[in-house]
Every structure is written in C-alpha cells, then in structure tokens.
Amino acid sequence: MQALGLDVLFKGSNLLRLLGGLGKALEISLIAVALSLILGVLFGVLMTFRNPVIRALSRIYLEIVRIMPQMVLLFLVFFGTTRVFGWDLNAEAASVIVFAFWGTAEMGDLVRGAIISVPKHQYESAFALGMTKSQTYFTIIIPQAIRQLIPLSINLITRMIKTTSLVMMIGVVEVLKVSQQIIEANRMTSPNAAFGIYLTVFVLYFIACWPFSILAKHLERKWSN
Amino acid sequence: MANTLLKIENLTKSYDGNVILKDFNLSVRKGEVIVIIGPSGCGKSTLLRCINGLEAIQSGVIKLDDEIIDSKSKTITKLRQRVGMVFQSYDLFPHKTVLQNIILAPTLVQKRDKKEVAAEAEQLLDKVGLSDKKDSYPRQLSGGQKQRVAIVRALCMHPEVMLFDEVTAALDPEMVREVLDTMLELARQGSTMLIVTHEMEFAKAVSDRVIFLDNGEIIEEGAPQSFFNHPKTERAQKFLHTFEFEHIK
Questions:
Q1: pLDDT, mean over chain B
Q2: Tens of pLDDT, residues A6-28
Q3: pTM of the prediction?
C-alpha cells in the first residue's frame, strides 16, 4: 500500500474528496452533454439545409471547434472575456459554455451525417406508399438516423467526460485538482502518493465512462445491419 | 377508349434542359399489362416516376380516372395510394420486420385496422411463399425475397395500377424467376401493370402491349407477338438484336 502510495486514499476524507471531485467533473460534463445533444440535433438538421449562408456559417463554426484546442477555448472564455466584455463568469459556467460549444458542433456533425446517410430510396419508397413528408421523417428516416447516431454520440459523451480533466486549469476543483491537493498535502508523509492517487483517478474515470462504452457496443450489435 | 384507367397526354419532362420525355402520350386500360422496353437512359424509369408523382413534369397531363396527378399538389399522397410502385433496389425499411414493412402504410396512411391488414399481409406473403419470413428483418432475406416482400408491400395498399421499375435488374439470375412468377400471377389476376424490364422472354409472356421507347419517344408499340417477331422499325430491330446471340455462333 505504502509503496504504491495507496495509503493516502484512506487518510482523513481523501477518498470522499476525490469522489466529490469526480462528481464535479461529471456535473459539468453531463450538463454540457445535455445541452450539446439538444442543440446538436438542431444544428445537425440546420446543416442539412441547402441555404448557402447557413452552410458557410456552420462550416466555419465546425472548423473553429475542430482546430482550436479545448484548453485555449477555456482560457479564452474564462480569462479573455472577463476584461474585454466585463463578463464575470465563474469557472464552472465557463467550462459548461466551452464544452457545450464544442459538443454542439460535433454532435451536429454526427446528426447531419446520420440524416444524409439514409438513402434517397428510403424517402421515395415511403412517398410511393402514399406517406406524407412528416410521416416519412418520423417513421422511416429519423428511426434509422438514430440507430446510426447513438453509438457515435456515446463515443462523444465519453470524450467529453474525459476532457473535463482540463477544467482544473481554470480553477475548477474537480477530481484532478483534488488529487493534486491531496498529493501536495501528503508530500512529506507519503511521497509515493502521486502514483496511488492518479491511479485511483484513472480507475474513477474508467468507471464513469465504461458503462457508456458498453451501452454503445450493445446498441451497435443490436442494430447492426 | 372505354375503361381507360390511366391517361397520359403530351407529357414533357426534362432535367436541367435535357429533355427526357417528349410529348409523350399513352392510355392504359383497366387490367392491361404494358411492358416498356428500350435502351438505358431512354426515359422508361422517369415515365414511371412521373406517373407516381415522384417527378415534377414540365407540361402535359397525367390522369388517373379523372384525377390529375401533380407532384406538387396537396392531394398527391391520396393519388399515390392508388398507384403501387416497386423499385429496382427493393427498398424495404431496414429497421422494420417484413410484416411491419407491409402493414405500416395501410395502417398509418389509410388508417385501416391493424388486425385486418396483418391478416391480409400474411395471406399475400403466403401466396409469394414467404409466410415463414414475416418476422424476419430485411437483412436476413435474399434479394429475390426482398423484392417479393416489396411487391406485397405495394399490393397491400390495394393500388389500382402497379408500376414495376426494373425490379429484377439487381437480382442474381436464380432469384429473377421467383419475382417474375409473382408478377405473372398478378397479371393473371387482372391487375393493371406497367412494367419496365430487360427480361425479353418475360415481356413476351406477360404483356398485352409492348412499348419501345428511345430518347423519350415511343418508337414502336404493339402486341408482344408481332413486336418481338416482326419489329417494324429499324431501331427496334437493332435493339432486339442485342439480346440475341445466334449470330455469334
């Protein structure tokens, strides 16, 4: 225990504090995920429109998100806006904004891909059977798009959860920040704490993300065709 | 003409300035089986798509009984229920079982009773030899089986005219026969059918009238026996010749 630095876990309320930090990370990521799913579906549908202005704007948005490192975005929103726009964002709000901004773009792209992946013939077969446009969308196109979408969006969700480890950089006390604090506080008594604590963080992230991965795999198998 | 079910008058259809169908006229009697043949790109498929309102037309009139088929009108979904169509790529809905594929439109669009439709669907499936497949998903079926399900799906809407767009073109040779047999059976029962096909022997057997189309115009039409044995126009002769191999021997 001592050699691996795991003993620190059971000192005081260290384990509880770590779990609290994980809770914070999950809170930020799940709020951001919820926002991203809703806004992403809207954005995705918007991207299937033929309007050139909408197309250009969504293209630019998507490229910005893809190119810009999340950490830079976090710094920009948290530190950058404070003086320039006079926004007094707390670190958690800034994190949610950045993660939702990122998630919406990626989710939108997945939704767009899923919608256009439904072959044109599916629409025509439905129309040929006398279905209206909305009947076709709700019974034929959207159910097929969702089957495409769920495994991919779960992948995005786990990526968003993992990436919350960046938000400590703007002062959110999440699981990684708590770990640093614990390691610092026990530097003299348990010099090996870094290994034990970070290993624990690794396991915690794994436990948080693993169920999503299983679900994705399960759905993928169920709907494979 | 008495009993005219479908009447096409002066139909013109073009895509981006390319004329696909030129001043096309055709009337189809109730119970008549018409086979449309011609080289690819001649407008055969487009003709069927126009009849089902899947394509906007530039001029002319397509009438089913006395109702005008207009792809942009609000009543087009009503008219499409009276016209059944089966496509080359047998597009069954992959997320629904065979039975669900068949009963979806009758229950959703025609608001018919689910039990009654399901019973009819099973009866039709039995006729095409697929009653044991009703709970299978399309991915579990062969191409020929899928195409027979697609035919049943269209039939279950009780259409007054059936359109078949090269329904065997994407099938393996062994699968072709089972689909053609299903269509022959339909013809025997007195269905009104418009069939686009490259199966010349089948065309000969099934049709009341053959139409040879090239460049969007009817080049020749007539009874199958006279058309296939003694085509009058040079273009039809040349076209039919491409299906024969005797001269190679």
A1: 88
A2: 777 777 888 888 888 888 888 99
A3: 0.77
* B84·A125 Cβ contact <8 A: no
* Residue B223: closest CA among B28, B34, B30: B34
**Interchain proximity A129–B104, CB inside 8 Å:** yes
Domains, chain A: 6-224 (1.10.3720.10)
Question: Which strand ranges, in their side-by-side order, compose the sheet holding B217-222?
Answer: B83-86, B161-165, B192-196, B33-37, B209-214, B217-222
Q: Please name the residue of chain A whose CA is at the shortest distance from the CA of residue B107.
A: A131
Residue A184 corresponds to which tokens in the numbers above?
A: 């610092």
Residue A135 forms contact with B (CB below 8 Å): yes
Residues B56-67 pLDDT 10s: 888 888 988 888
Give the number of A-B residue pairs with CB atoms closer than 8 Å.
Answer: 65
Listed in sequence order, the residues at least 6 apart from A157 whose beta carbon sits closer than 8 Å to its beta carbon are A29, A33, A212
Neighbours of A93 (CB within 10 A): 15
Mention every residue, 6+ apart, whose C-beta is less than 8 A from residue B20: B13, B14, B43, B46, B216
Q: Are B152 and B124 in contact (CB under 8 A)?
A: yes
